[in-house]
Amino acid sequence: MSNPGEPRKIDIQIKVREALGRATLARARNQREQALKLLQEAIGLDDADPEAYELKGDILLDLKRGEEAMACFKRARELHPDRPALEDKIARAALQRAARQRTIEMSQAILEGRVKPTSKKSPSYAALLSLLIPGLGQIYNGEMMKGLALILAFVFLFALAVLAVLREMAASPFGGMGYGQPTTSGAVMSALSSGSTVLVTILLAAVWIYAIAEAALYAGRTMTSDDTGLV
Question: Which of 14, 61, 120, 203 has its CA 20 to 30 A from that of 141?
Fold first, then answer.
Protein backbone atom coordinates (compact mmCIF):
# COMPACT_ATOMS: atom_id res chain seq x y z
CA MET A 1 0.00 0.00 0.00
CA SER A 2 1.46 3.34 -1.04
CA ASN A 3 2.03 6.16 1.44
CA PRO A 4 -0.38 9.05 0.65
CA GLY A 5 2.26 11.53 1.76
CA GLU A 6 4.80 10.40 -0.86
CA PRO A 7 3.23 12.18 -3.88
CA ARG A 8 3.05 15.42 -1.93
CA LYS A 9 6.71 15.05 -0.88
CA ILE A 10 7.76 14.47 -4.48
CA ASP A 11 5.75 17.51 -5.61
CA ILE A 12 7.47 19.65 -2.98
CA GLN A 13 10.90 18.45 -4.08
CA ILE A 14 10.08 19.29 -7.70
CA LYS A 15 8.93 22.78 -6.74
CA VAL A 16 12.07 23.29 -4.64
CA ARG A 17 14.28 22.23 -7.57
CA GLU A 18 12.41 24.59 -9.88
CA ALA A 19 12.81 27.49 -7.45
CA LEU A 20 16.53 26.75 -7.07
CA GLY A 21 16.99 26.66 -10.81
CA ARG A 22 15.17 29.94 -11.31
CA ALA A 23 17.15 31.52 -8.44
CA THR A 24 20.42 30.41 -10.00
CA LEU A 25 19.37 31.91 -13.31
CA ALA A 26 18.29 35.16 -11.63
CA ARG A 27 21.65 35.40 -9.88
CA ALA A 28 23.46 34.92 -13.19
CA ARG A 29 21.44 37.84 -14.55
CA ASN A 30 22.39 39.97 -11.49
CA GLN A 31 18.78 39.87 -10.32
CA ARG A 32 19.85 39.06 -6.77
CA GLU A 33 16.78 40.35 -4.93
CA GLN A 34 14.56 38.25 -7.18
CA ALA A 35 16.82 35.27 -6.54
CA LEU A 36 16.48 35.77 -2.77
CA LYS A 37 12.68 35.77 -3.05
CA LEU A 38 12.78 32.49 -4.99
CA LEU A 39 15.12 30.93 -2.44
CA GLN A 40 12.89 32.05 0.40
CA GLU A 41 10.02 30.28 -1.36
CA ALA A 42 12.15 27.14 -1.66
CA ILE A 43 13.06 27.27 2.03
CA GLY A 44 9.39 27.78 2.87
CA LEU A 45 8.58 24.59 1.00
CA ASP A 46 11.49 22.64 2.51
CA ASP A 47 13.47 24.19 5.34
CA ALA A 48 15.85 21.24 5.39
CA ASP A 49 17.35 21.78 1.93
CA PRO A 50 21.06 22.67 2.38
CA GLU A 51 21.48 23.77 -1.23
CA ALA A 52 18.86 26.50 -0.81
CA TYR A 53 20.59 27.88 2.29
CA GLU A 54 24.01 27.75 0.66
CA LEU A 55 22.86 29.53 -2.48
CA LYS A 56 21.07 32.14 -0.39
CA GLY A 57 24.29 32.65 1.56
CA ASP A 58 26.24 33.08 -1.69
CA ILE A 59 23.87 35.78 -2.88
CA LEU A 60 23.89 37.57 0.47
CA LEU A 61 27.68 37.49 0.32
CA ASP A 62 27.48 39.10 -3.14
CA LEU A 63 25.34 41.82 -1.58
CA LYS A 64 27.90 42.32 1.23
CA ARG A 65 25.41 41.18 3.87
CA GLY A 66 27.94 39.08 5.72
CA GLU A 67 26.04 38.46 8.94
CA GLU A 68 22.96 37.10 7.14
CA ALA A 69 25.17 35.08 4.81
CA MET A 70 26.98 33.48 7.75
CA ALA A 71 23.67 32.42 9.29
CA CYS A 72 22.68 30.73 6.01
CA PHE A 73 26.03 28.96 5.65
CA LYS A 74 25.87 27.72 9.23
CA ARG A 75 22.39 26.33 8.64
CA ALA A 76 23.61 24.65 5.45
CA ARG A 77 26.50 23.12 7.40
CA GLU A 78 24.08 21.75 10.00
CA LEU A 79 22.11 20.08 7.22
CA HIS A 80 25.18 18.98 5.25
CA PRO A 81 28.15 18.74 7.66
CA ASP A 82 30.32 16.83 5.17
CA ARG A 83 30.62 19.74 2.72
CA PRO A 84 34.06 21.35 3.36
CA ALA A 85 33.41 24.36 1.09
CA LEU A 86 30.99 25.71 3.67
CA GLU A 87 33.81 26.34 6.15
CA ASP A 88 35.53 28.64 3.69
CA LYS A 89 32.28 30.47 2.98
CA ILE A 90 31.62 30.93 6.68
CA ALA A 91 35.10 32.42 7.08
CA ARG A 92 34.51 34.80 4.17
CA ALA A 93 31.19 35.87 5.64
CA ALA A 94 32.85 36.46 9.02
CA LEU A 95 35.48 38.70 7.40
CA GLN A 96 32.79 40.63 5.57
CA ARG A 97 30.81 41.05 8.77
CA ALA A 98 33.91 42.34 10.57
CA ALA A 99 34.59 44.79 7.74
CA ARG A 100 31.00 46.00 7.95
CA GLN A 101 31.35 46.52 11.69
CA ARG A 102 34.49 48.57 11.12
CA THR A 103 32.50 50.60 8.59
CA ILE A 104 29.86 51.41 11.17
CA GLU A 105 32.43 52.27 13.83
CA MET A 106 34.48 54.46 11.49
CA SER A 107 31.40 56.24 10.14
CA GLN A 108 30.21 56.91 13.68
CA ALA A 109 33.64 58.25 14.64
CA ILE A 110 33.62 60.59 11.63
CA LEU A 111 30.12 61.85 12.47
CA GLU A 112 31.19 62.50 16.06
CA GLY A 113 34.31 64.35 14.89
CA ARG A 114 36.72 61.87 16.47
CA VAL A 115 38.19 60.88 13.08
CA LYS A 116 38.60 62.90 9.91
CA PRO A 117 38.41 61.06 6.57
CA THR A 118 41.64 61.16 4.58
CA SER A 119 41.35 62.30 0.99
CA LYS A 120 43.06 60.23 -1.66
CA LYS A 121 46.42 61.50 -2.87
CA SER A 122 48.36 60.93 -6.08
CA PRO A 123 51.57 58.93 -5.46
CA SER A 124 53.26 60.30 -8.58
CA TYR A 125 52.43 63.92 -7.69
CA ALA A 126 53.60 63.44 -4.09
CA ALA A 127 56.88 61.91 -5.31
CA LEU A 128 57.39 64.75 -7.81
CA LEU A 129 56.94 67.39 -5.12
CA SER A 130 59.50 65.69 -2.87
CA LEU A 131 61.82 65.34 -5.84
CA LEU A 132 61.73 69.12 -6.29
CA ILE A 133 62.10 69.87 -2.58
CA PRO A 134 62.27 67.03 -0.04
CA GLY A 135 59.31 67.40 2.33
CA LEU A 136 56.87 69.03 -0.08
CA GLY A 137 55.33 65.66 -0.89
CA GLN A 138 54.73 65.03 2.81
CA ILE A 139 53.05 68.41 3.20
CA TYR A 140 50.85 67.57 0.19
CA ASN A 141 49.92 64.29 1.90
CA GLY A 142 48.92 66.14 5.04
CA GLU A 143 52.03 65.17 7.05
CA MET A 144 52.86 68.76 7.94
CA MET A 145 55.35 68.17 10.76
CA LYS A 146 57.22 65.45 8.88
CA GLY A 147 57.37 67.63 5.76
CA LEU A 148 58.78 70.62 7.64
CA ALA A 149 61.32 68.40 9.41
CA LEU A 150 62.52 67.00 6.08
CA ILE A 151 62.81 70.47 4.56
CA LEU A 152 64.85 71.69 7.54
CA ALA A 153 67.04 68.57 7.43
CA PHE A 154 67.64 69.04 3.71
CA VAL A 155 68.52 72.74 4.07
CA PHE A 156 70.85 71.99 6.99
CA LEU A 157 72.67 69.20 5.16
CA PHE A 158 72.88 71.26 1.98
CA ALA A 159 74.48 74.10 3.93
CA LEU A 160 76.90 71.65 5.54
CA ALA A 161 77.83 70.30 2.10
CA VAL A 162 78.54 73.80 0.78
CA LEU A 163 80.63 74.67 3.84
CA ALA A 164 82.57 71.41 3.53
CA VAL A 165 83.38 72.14 -0.11
CA LEU A 166 84.46 75.70 0.67
CA ARG A 167 86.63 74.55 3.58
CA GLU A 168 88.31 71.86 1.52
CA MET A 169 88.90 74.25 -1.36
CA ALA A 170 90.52 76.75 0.99
CA ALA A 171 92.91 74.08 2.25
CA SER A 172 93.56 72.51 -1.17
CA PRO A 173 97.16 72.46 -2.48
CA PHE A 174 95.76 73.06 -5.98
CA GLY A 175 94.71 76.59 -5.21
CA GLY A 176 92.71 77.93 -2.30
CA MET A 177 90.01 80.45 -1.69
CA GLY A 178 92.32 83.03 -0.21
CA TYR A 179 92.78 86.53 -1.55
CA GLY A 180 94.60 86.56 -4.87
CA GLN A 181 94.53 82.77 -5.20
CA PRO A 182 92.49 81.67 -8.23
CA THR A 183 90.25 78.63 -7.86
CA THR A 184 91.36 75.75 -10.06
CA SER A 185 89.48 72.67 -11.26
CA GLY A 186 91.90 70.60 -9.20
CA ALA A 187 90.83 72.43 -6.05
CA VAL A 188 87.15 71.84 -6.84
CA MET A 189 87.65 68.14 -7.53
CA SER A 190 89.72 67.74 -4.40
CA ALA A 191 87.03 69.42 -2.31
CA LEU A 192 84.22 67.34 -3.81
CA SER A 193 86.06 64.08 -3.23
CA SER A 194 87.05 64.78 0.36
CA GLY A 195 85.75 62.52 3.11
CA SER A 196 83.64 65.14 4.88
CA THR A 197 82.01 66.30 1.65
CA VAL A 198 81.22 62.76 0.55
CA LEU A 199 79.70 61.91 3.95
CA VAL A 200 77.43 64.96 3.97
CA THR A 201 76.47 64.32 0.34
CA ILE A 202 75.48 60.74 1.17
CA LEU A 203 73.30 61.96 4.06
CA LEU A 204 71.77 64.60 1.80
CA ALA A 205 70.95 62.00 -0.87
CA ALA A 206 69.50 59.64 1.78
CA VAL A 207 67.11 62.34 3.02
CA TRP A 208 66.11 63.16 -0.56
CA ILE A 209 65.46 59.51 -1.51
CA TYR A 210 63.57 58.86 1.73
CA ALA A 211 61.35 61.89 1.19
CA ILE A 212 60.47 60.79 -2.36
CA ALA A 213 59.81 57.15 -1.47
CA GLU A 214 57.86 57.88 1.73
CA ALA A 215 55.67 60.49 0.03
CA ALA A 216 54.77 58.08 -2.79
CA LEU A 217 54.10 55.15 -0.43
CA TYR A 218 51.92 57.21 1.90
CA ALA A 219 49.91 58.58 -1.01
CA GLY A 220 49.60 55.04 -2.39
CA ARG A 221 48.04 53.86 0.85
CA THR A 222 45.36 56.53 0.58
CA MET A 223 44.59 55.29 -2.95
CA THR A 224 44.13 51.65 -1.86
CA SER A 225 42.42 52.11 1.49
CA ASP A 226 38.91 53.28 2.32
CA ASP A 227 39.41 55.65 5.24
CA THR A 228 35.74 56.47 5.47
CA GLY A 229 34.96 52.81 6.06
CA LEU A 230 32.42 52.63 3.26
CA VAL A 231 32.57 48.96 2.31
Answer: 203
